[in-house]
Give the backbone structure.
Amino acid sequence: MSKNNSTVGYLDFTQLILELIKKSEKYKDMFKATVELQQVAGIETAVIGMGYSHGKDYRNLSEEEQFNKLKRLIDLGHMSVLEHITISYSIHNITRTLLQELARHRIASYTVQSTRFTLKKVVTEFSDIMKCGKIDPKQVKKYFYCPNEAVYNQTVDIIRNMLDFLKKNPKAGNDSLKYLLPENFYVSNVMMTINFRSLLNLLELRLSKNALFEFRNLAIKLIAVLPLILEELAIYYIFEIKRINW
Ligand SMILES: Cc1cc2nc3c(=O)[nH]c(=O)nc-3n(C[C@H](O)[C@H](O)[C@H](O)COP(=O)(O)OP(=O)(O)OC[C@H]3O[C@@H](n4cnc5c(N)ncnc54)[C@H](O)[C@@H]3O)c2cc1C
């Protein structure tokens, strides 16, 4: 089943999908997060497992039949079966603030690019930009998120202080330096592997109006890259079953 062939898919959630796209457009210029789907495994395993529980053979079902079986599981609240489905995402360019919120989702595995190995390089790159006199906000967008001018100016000051600190303490390592790093700095490259049940929990919490807007933006992207069968199950769960405050 190709996403290109079907914007509606099995369920008539066109409106919701359009809203998701509209919201992600709204955040487009604010956050640079990109999400790549690395791997999805276990959809068929979950369906076959459901067959075990019902004493039936659910091997070799069509994708549409698989979708209906999994949707039925969600209707019944038989959520543990969804844990057989695992999804690995490669996530780039989220802030440290979002990273710490993401990592609160314990039922998932994470691998994060180490500041120990990368921080001095980033700070040095940044000092080269600073040497050019007036700093161009477009240039620094690569390094940190600026919701407004005041935050932008404040962040530049913090980086200046970091550079002064490095000059005075040339032997200071990345481990010391990272205590000075502002929270709006981008962290590149987070690998997250999460099972589908836990992903639904994450999406329910983080698509809501109450969530941090950077996390809402990420949540939309986590749905958007899923295979259609999982994308529509996620939308069904969040908007039809949970009816989140969106
Ligand atoms: C709008 C919003 C505001 C928030 N504000 C705060 C805040 O002010 N302070 C703060 O500390 N956090 C805050 N959080 C984070 C929140 O408390 C959770 O830590 C985070 O959302 C992860 O959710 P989770 O525990 O359901 O996910 P996971 O850790 O992935 O757990 C998934 C599910 O597994 C089960 N589970 C996991 N571990 C246990 C366990 N030890 N015992 C029993 N069941 C378990 C639960 O059913 C849980 O829902 C906020 C979250 C949101 C969405």
